[in-house]
Write a structure and sequence with these properties.
The complex is a heterotrimer of chains A (about 375), B (about 150) and C (about 70).
Chain A lengths: L8 H6 L8 E11 L5 E13 L3 E21 L11 E5 L3 E22 L5 E11 L2 E14 L5 E17 L15 E20 L2 E14 L7 E4 L5 E6 L5 E16 L2 E12 L4 E12 L4 E12 L27 E13 L4 E12 L3 E13 L1
Antiparallel strand pairs in A: 1-2, 1-19, 2-3, 3-5, 4-12, 5-6, 6-7, 7-8, 8-9, 9-10, 10-13, 11-12, 13-14, 14-15, 15-16, 16-17, 17-18, 18-19
Chain B lengths: L1 H10 L13 H7 L6 E7 L4 H15 L6 E7 L4 H10 L5 E4 L4 H6 L6 E6 L2 E7 L5 H12 L1
Parallel strand pairs in B: 1-2, 2-3
Antiparallel strand pairs in B: 1-4, 4-5
Helix pairs in contact in B: 3-6
Chain C lengths: L1 H12 L17 H4 L5 H14 L17
Classes of the chains: A mainly beta (about 375), B alpha/beta (about 150), C mainly alpha (about 70).
Amino acid sequence: MQLRLSLATATLLASMALQAQDYVSLQYLQYDEGSGRTSVSAPALTINKDFGADYTLNAYIVVDAVSGASPAYSVDTGSGASAFSRGIGVAAATVQYSNISYTDTRTAGDLALTKRLDNRDELNIGIARSQERDFYSSELSTEYMHWLGDNKNKSLSFGVSYQANEILVECTVAGTSSCDTGSGASEKMTASVINTQLTYAQNISQNATASISLFGIMESGYLTNPYKNVVRNNNGVTADVVGENRPDSRKAYGVSLKYANALRSSLTFHTLYRYYTDDWNINSHTLDLSLIYELNKKWTLDFGIRGYMQGEADFYNGSSTYFTSQIYASSDDRLSNFTSSTIKTNVEYTMSKDWSVNFSANYYEQSTDLQALYFMTGIRYNF
Amino acid sequence: MKKILLGIFLSLNLFAYEVGDTLKNTMAQHLNIDNSKLYVIDFYASWCGSCKKELPLISQANIQIDTNKVEFLGINVDKDIQASMEFNKETEINFRVINDSNSIIVSQFNPIGIPTLYYVKNKKIMKIITGALDNIDKQILNDIKEME
Amino acid sequence: MKFTITIIVLILFSGCTKEIKPWEKGMLAKDSMKSSSKNTIGKKFEEHMFFSKEASKGGSGISGGGCGCN
């Protein structure tokens, strides 16, 4: 749930980009945050298969094993270990902000079919499913790409997806839900996400392409994180440690610009800029730059950097003495004001026409005092 | 020198060969084609995924034709001559290929996509197929039957 | 902000770009032009990570375009 993830809607659409080759690829990810926080091990498999000249099928499956801890407010029950406990009118001195441990397994997959029409326009249809102990997500998506002009240098695409999520919220958690807190049962909450995207893309020279996308995302339902608490009515003597509460709708929109240039036949430069804004008052800027260098026929090196900055949600506050009777309240630092940077490297070795292996080492850092190292290694077979 | 001049001349040209047009004599000479046969001319490139799928089928069709009456001709439009040569070898093309790395031929034909297939008889364009087809071999054999 | 985006868009998409012919797309057809990493599953992992660690999403699923080279 912490690394939760409904398959990001947009990711699915990205996976449909045409690869003119049949392949199967297996990757293994190891992700580790410092100081006992989250670790993820995730093997993933993808298969891409063309059926004639008109159809391409892409299937992807990943299994994440997540363990570790994530910081949140809780009540120190004196048992030693940091547990996920809440309480009304507890002694203020027992309120702590510390790592709460958890484990989870996520299984997620998607299937996408691309159909090329007689005029070479493309229709994509995708389904996706993601499952955790306490979270289920199903998604349907479709996108149509239309070429503007005979020379196929300009295109317009429109895509839309619908995601239905089910979140199991434990009833033992006081103040979270209306069900019987003593029974140990869970209450099923729901949320939905509609994502739309309009993209104009153009070849701007024999070695450069650019695109602009406008996107809008509408979320509604239970958008609160059931594992995050806030502290209310802290008067220095007593305090209430209760579940956070987020609005039950979120409307976001933004623009992203992409530019790719083959500087030489062996060196390609990519840049992406994204601006995002939503009605929780979160704004963000993302800049991603990368280089792909084909050293020779066998070795390819990727290098990338990504910078990100976001402003905080208007109902966010990290302090234990801030919230009183506000309806919406969250101390989840993912909704705070922060910056992050990522350094990415990947090396691919092509053993033969059919086989290649890769290794990737990456570093992610957030100004919220989060650092992570993640490695990926994999093998690919073209058939 | 002659080739370069021809190239410059042709690249300035906004002309495209359509069905019913007759090839200029300079072009026919350049392609080394005459009036004795039906020519099936395929424009392709190593970087074109669907060409890679189509070419083995075209080679297969080439085995089933009367070579006294029909000739297949490939025009590899790769600018990278080395990639062009490697690709020709890899795909085991069994017909004559011209490496058009200076785009002299392709810019004259001016197809709207790669791959594009032209049928030429008596220097006249009989039919054009743009884009890859799953059953291109059968399509070609049928078309030949109709045109002979 | 808006000004910067407008300028970038105008430069990228101005009508003064020369029409690229179908046979001139050898570079555009390269895998390295289609995706910013050879490791496409890795990109998915990353999207997932950013999605779970940051509060914004969207805009990354640009499956439109392509080079028109098939």
